Amino acid sequence: MEPRFRKTLEEYNRLAHSAETLSAEEDQELLSRINEFIEQTAASRMMEVTDQEKIFLIQKQKQKVMAWLHERLREVDAGETRFEPNARSVSYDGQNYYWEKSHGTKVKITKGALLTDTIWDIDYSLDPQTVPRTVRKRYYIEKAKRILESELDKQIAIDQQQSPLSDSRTRRGYPGIIKDRELLVTSGHLAEKLVYSFLKKHTIDHDFDFDVQSANVYEDLQLKIDFIIKLKARSRGVAVEEDEKVHTIGVQFSTAKRRMGKQKRVREAAEYARSIGTPFQDIIVVRVPLKQVIRLFADWSVSKPPGGPDSLWDSEVKEKLFKQVMKDLFPAEQITAMWNQIRLSENPFEK
Q1: For labelling alongside 159, which of 95, 113, 170, 193 has CA 20 to 30 A away?
Q2: Is pLDDT of 270 > 80?
Q3: Torsion angle defined by CA atoms of residues 329, 334, 338 and 343, in that order, rounded to the nearest 10 degrees
Q4: Phi/psi at 99 (5° precision)
Q5: CA 311 – CA 296 distance, rounded (Å)
Q6: Would residue 61 count as lying in a domain?
């Protein structure tokens, strides 16, 4: 998002958090400060006050999500058991995780799939007696992140859509892109989500030297970024602090066979990203034709096995996709080694 809007949300977050522990008199004083800040922000963006109020109310909702997360983490530390309705029960035998289906059958599931299936609206209930505490905590963190990311997109869309300081093309684009990202009505956004899910899952399972993050709606529309790769700097085999050397790369994913001027648009987006102070050191184009992703999603949706729809891709598609995304980021021999880890984890009897 824009650094300017990030600062606005930080202040909204501080004000929303302050409201939780105040007396009636202090609450009234805070309310005046909130209203004053909302009015100032609306004036600076040439927006209606009611639109900034909507953004602030969403920030308060995000505070509730964080409160939910802290309560879940407290329960994990306290060893308390929570029943999750309509969730799939998962246990751990010391080596593997298993989804225990209602008729008693056990289905093996990797930790990566367990932590990323929230992308596909699958909920799990993790057995506190067998599943490690760190995994249970991370599961709740990942679940909260998905909700917070969705709420942030709504805030960005209101800000960009309602401010006359945004160009007209940008204002028109937000309703459609929000709908596409939520409902996956186009094959393009579905393909992007499949690729993100595939990569994120395997970074968790194999502890690769990179992380994958989703792009927010501003990064998608304004900077042409579909997902983000962060290369982890290593020092004597130990990952350094993220703010020291991590290289942040925006990835524009395309299923088109021809570029049709995309490289020029991405170069312009990279220059714009640097000019407004975003953390991206580079933006790259990755082009992999993926066929029939809507049918793939429909086939997977029948029973929704663990691992997301991308688990139905054959090995050749996965290999081509992984190597194409990684080709400008790592040496060829390291890419091959990483792919072999993925391949052998999915097909342990191969050589």
Answers
A1: 193
A2: no
A3: 120
A4: -90, 120
A5: 10
A6: no
Task: Evaluate whether 231 touches 209 at the Cβ level (below 8 Å).
Answer: yes
Residue 14 lies in a domain: no
Q: 22-46: b or e for each residue (b if 16 or more CB lie within 10 Å)?
A: eeeeeeeeeeeebeebbeebbeebe
Taking only Cα atoms into account, the Rg of the chain, rounded to an integer number of angstroms, comes to: 22
Residues contacting residue 135 through CB under 8 Å, at least 6 positions apart: 92, 111, 114, 115, 126
What is the per-residue pLDDT across 134-168, written as a single tens digit (0 to 9) for each? 999 999 999 999 999 999 999 999 988 887 777 77
CA angle 213, 282, 177 (to 5 degrees): 50
Do 93 and 130 touch, CB atoms closer than 8 A?
A: yes
Query: What's the predicted TM-score (pTM) here?
Result: 0.86
203 found inside a domain: yes
250 within 8 A of 280, measured Cβ to Cβ: yes
Helix ranges (H only) for the chain are: 3-18, 24-45, 49-78, 111-116, 133-162, 168-183, 187-206, 217-223, 242-245, 262-275, 293-301, 315-326, 332-346
Task: Tell me the two tokens of residue 204.
Answer: 């968790």
* Strand 227-231 versus strand 106-109 pairing type: unpaired
DSSP 252-281: EEE--SS-TTHHHHHHHHHHHHHHTT-S-S
Residue 97, beta-bridge partner list: 92, 109
Which residue, chain included where needed, has tokens 């953004």? 55
Q: How many domains does the chain have?
A: 1
Q: How far apart are CA 175 and CA 137, in angstroms?
A: 34
**pLDDT tens sequence across 184-230:** 667 788 888 999 999 999 999 999 999 999 999 888 888 888 999 99
- CA distances to 18, 45, 59 from 32, rounded to whole Å, are 13, 20, 17
- Assigned domain for 149 exists: yes
